[in-house]
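We emphasize that the prediction below concerns an isolated chain of 202 residues; any contacts that depend on oligomerization or on bound cofactors are therefore not represented. The input was used exactly as deposited, without trimming of termini.
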Amino acid sequence: HDGNNSRIHDTGTGGLIIQGDAQINLQSASNENYIECVSNGAVTVYHDNSAKLQTKSDGVDILGELQSDSLDVDGTSNLGGTLTVSSGNLVMHSGGRIFTGNGGNAVNPMIANGSDENTGIAFPAADTLLIAAGGETAARFNGGGSSQLYYDNVQKLETTSGGVSVTGSLIASTNVEAQNNMHVSDNKKYLAGNANDLQIYH
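Result of the prediction step, given as a token string:
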């Protein structure tokens, strides 16, 4: 004791080794744990007698919140809760990707608009992307297949191997130019004029 503090002071050759057969604890005078070291087991670091960091066979458990000025993850990161970016940006470098679900193939993973789970980008099946708004489908894109656009959750336009299919009327603000034949089914008409005064049909 130096008059102010009690000290363990090693001045010999080599390091200072503290050994315990089963467990070593650093504690306060009231038996609050600071550090607990278990033989063949975990090392646990405490705050106010509450465990906050614990080693394990495959790494470390953080029991609470981790605050860091920077974080460099070289391997895979598994997140069981929510990742919140309160300020700044989430930046991916060239070649980086975001996978949703189990390897990107889970059923119905979604990138939502805040807490609104009815609006966002969903992946309902492999090679399929869906854009939803207010719980209704706005657009759907199928890899190697069609793309569809919706109005009020009803499909109105779909790409096909031969072109585009429109459900309902097609209104153009300028001319419509056909570079090939235009086909009309039997008993259907070409109509022109405000009163449909020009009719061509077969």
